[in-house]
Amino acid sequence: MKEYTLIIKGEMDFIILSPQVLSSLITQIHNSPERKVVVSIESIMPPKFTDYLLRVINSNRFSNERFRYRYILENPVTKKGMYEILRQQLSRTNTESCGKSRDQHATKAYRLTASSNLYQLL
Predict the structure, then answer these.
(1) Nearest partner of 39 among 95, 89, 110, judged by Cα
(2) Is the pLDDT of residue 1 over 80?
């Protein structure tokens, strides 16, 4: 098994990409036999978690610099805005390998693209 370190580059925004969301995304990727995978955000972000994050973001938006998300102009932030935050954070990730794979030939490379609330993994 290969171990990775995930680094999210960019500003000091509050990170909404939780280990559970990332785990769900990775699980869907690995369970798909297809080379191109389309993932609905609702399938990786539980509705209660989404609602919780929206409350946290909107209640802290103007009192804490880390919740400003300057690329999101809507106020209050809606699910659409939060999905854009997630897309931005996923697009700024850098994965570094931290060890050797048991099967060095079983590697997969993915490119993430986003459109509205769907992610395509190519």
Answers:
(1) 110
(2) no
